[in-house]
Structure formats: structure tokens, C-alpha cells
Amino acid sequence: MPDGTATLPVASLDTTLPETASPDRTPAAWRRLRRQAAEVAAREPVLGAQMRRAVLDRSDFADALAALLAAKLATADVTSDALHGLLSALFAEEPVTVATAATDLAASVDRNPAFPDELTGLLYAKGFHALQTYRAAHVLWRRGRRELAVWLSAQANEVFAVDIHPAARIGAGVFIDHGTGVVIGETATVGHDSSMLHLVTLGGTGKDSGDRHPKVGRGVLIGAGATILGNVQVGDGARIGAGSVVLDRVPPRSTAVGVPAQVVRAHGDPAPALSMSHVVPDGLDWSV
């Protein structure tokens, strides 16, 4: 396999979070959610009970998120109440996780024209639900509670059809559109403000252990059905075309398409993930 470990910049996931992930922004997001839920309850009384249970009867965004995930992930053996307590405790101990979730939610609304508001994303976007389950599992993994982290990850896969290993590192403001079939491996990283669609795989190439999964930079857009294999780097602001198979490094601000993927040209967009533009630029130069 081509060596993808050359020096390309990727997002720093463990140091500075984007300004949008500041905990100071979470209360404003919560006020918008409550207003939106109240408006829906008034327009559609049949949804009133759902609006109260999901938002209006909750104390804050962390409580609402914990309750929503607990209800979706509960089993006969691991009850909704037990999960709600677990998630509430994790969110209280690590408020940055809640702020990151609010940033992910804002990103999903900003980048998906099918979502008219944050309430729609919170209640119905399973890519968002799977990502927040991963974030809770990642906290547990870092704390050494690995059996519980793996259970959460497996249950998210069962419920949402999204398989994210709890050891993966994923930045803030990430958008997983649709979600179905997304796989993110144990040593993968995904930079801040990146977007991906359904059936994306960030995988390994066999039974090798160690650092074996892709390193995706900041602001990267990965199209539906794209597969990135091995410890290859995808530079900041890159665009990976739908259905492509990436086996080698992709430079920053470049577009890669095909099977195997080739870099067809550089582009000037620092974050195609924000515009969600999947259009390959005109004037392709396949000699790049």
C-alpha cells in the first residue's frame, strides 16, 4: 500500500476547540430549542407530548441530549433510566462534550437544507445521534471504562447503523449526513468542521494492529460511499468524491475522485465541508 504518512497538516483534536464549541454558546442554543419546541407543540397538538418529553420538560441541553440518547439506546438489560443517569453524569463532568454536541447540531442545520431548525436535527438526525453516542463512549474509553464504551458503540451501531470506535478522535462541528453505513475505525481522526455522508468508511487494510486508520484534516468533505483505507492523511480542506477509494495521501485543498482515487486538481476552498459542494471543479487536470 502507498505510504500515506508524509507530513500533511491535520486538525489538532486535543488542544484548541473552535470558538463555536465554547460552553458559553450552549445556553443560547437551548433557548432556541425550547422556543422551537413550544411553537411545534402549539401548531401540532398531537406532537405536544413528544415536545414536552424531549425538550420542554428538560432542565437544559445536556439533560435533553442525555434523555434522547437514553431512550433510543435502552435495552431490556440496560434501562433508559440507567443510561440517562450515566450520560447526565458524564455531561456534567465534561461540559466541553455538551458544547461540542451543540456545535455539531448547529453544523447539521447549517449544512443540511432539509433541517429547518435545530429541533429537527436534535430529534430526527441519526447521524447526529450516533456522533453524540460516540462522544459519550469516547469519554468512557479515555477513563478506562472500556467495556461500557464498547457496549455504547455496539448499541449505536445496532440502532443507528453507524459504527464509530470509541477510541477514534473526532473534532467539533462535524456533520454526518444520513449516517447509515458510516464506519470510523479505532485509530482514525477527523478534524473540526468536517462533513461526511452515508456509507463512508475510514478503515484499515487488513489485520495489522497499531496506528492503521485514516487521518482526516479540518474542513474536509467526504462524499457518499467514499472509502479511505489505511494510515493515510487527507489534508485540511480536501474534497473526496462520492464512491471514491482513497489509498494514498490527499494534499490540502485538493479534490480526489475515482477508484483508486486520484487528485484531479487543487482548489482554493479552505473548507468544502461547510458549503457541502460535491461538484468537481471544471478544467480537470488528471496529470496532477
- Share of residues in strands: 5-15%
Largest sheet: 6 strands, mixed
Element-by-element helix/strand order: HHHHHHHHEEEEEEEEEEEEEEEH
Stretches where pLDDT is under 50 for at least 5 consecutive residues are 1-15, 284-288
Instruction: State the helix count.
Output: 9
Q: Classify the secondary structure makeup into a structural class.
A: alpha/beta
**Average pLDDT rating:** 90
The gyration radius over C-alpha positions equals 19 Å
Biggest sheet: strand arrangement? 3-6-9-12-14-15
Let me know the number of strands.
15
CATH topology of the largest domain, anyone?
serine acetyltransferase, domain 1
Shape: globular
Helix content: 25-40%
**Alpha-carbon distance between the termini?**
20 Å
CATH class of the largest domain: Mainly Alpha
**The CATH H-level homologous superfamily of the largest domain:** serine acetyltransferase, domain 1
Total domain modules: 2
Your description of this structure?
The protein has two domains: 1-17 and 171-288, 3 Solenoid (UDP N-Acetylglucosamine Acyltransferase, domain 1), CATH 2.160.10.10; 19-162, Orthogonal Bundle (serine acetyltransferase, domain 1). Mean pLDDT is 90; it is low at 1-15 and 284-288. It has a six-stranded mixed β-sheet with strand order 3-6-9-12-14-15. A five-stranded parallel β-sheet has the order 1-4-7-10-13. A four-stranded parallel β-sheet has the order 2-5-8-11, with no helix packed on it. The protein has nine helices and 15 strands. Helix 1 (26-43) runs antiparallel to helix 2 (48-56), helix 5 (95-111) packs across helix 6 (118-124) and helix 5 (95-111) packs antiparallel against helix 7 (126-142). The protein has helices at 26-43, 48-56, 61-73, 80-93, 95-111, 118-124, 126-142, 146-160, 272-275; strands at residues 163-164, 169-170, 175-176, 183-184, 189-190, 195-196, 201-203, 215-216, 221-222, 227-229, 233-234, 239-240, 245-246, 254-257, 262-266.
